[in-house]
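User: I'll paste a sequence; please echo it back and then give the predicted structure.

Assistant: Echoing your sequence first, then the prediction.
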Amino acid sequence: MKGVRWSLWVLAAFAALVGLFALQLSRPKNDTVQSAMIGQAVPPFALDAAVPERPGLATADLADGTPHLLNVFASWCVPCAAEAPQLAALERQGAPIVAVAVRDRPEDLEVFFQRYGNPFSRVGKDDLSRVQFLIGSAGVPETFVVDGKGVIRHQHIGEIRPEDVPDLLRRLEEARG
């Protein structure tokens, strides 16, 4: 009798666990991370140039009246290389793009740009990831839409894929208004 009662408890616990898993699987997936920096001004910073052929980047460059895409990347980042064609497409469509190069060396960036192109008008050197963390970026690549007043309007986490280009262009246009 005790064995039957114990078996029923195990069966009930197993059924409850299966029910909990089924409930979680039936809920819609939400992989959007809500950044605390959305709606906030880009914190003050000034970065030296990461490569000789482009100027560095400072907060004032993001508050010049023109919305920008701010890309946080690194030459050692494989997804950063994968998003390079999409950044080039954004640039061709008129998107102003600036960048923060995280923990990188100028010679590695030169090779990266020779291989994948350089769509950035400015590239700031962030050797200690200080600016990366200030703006709420936890990894590379990440892209922010910053309006002409220097306020972060959108954060795209991860590589930009071809299907993301229209959305980023739309968000950049919304940041103009």
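The helical segments are 2-26, 78-92, 106-116, 130-134, 165-176. The chain has a mean pLDDT of 91.
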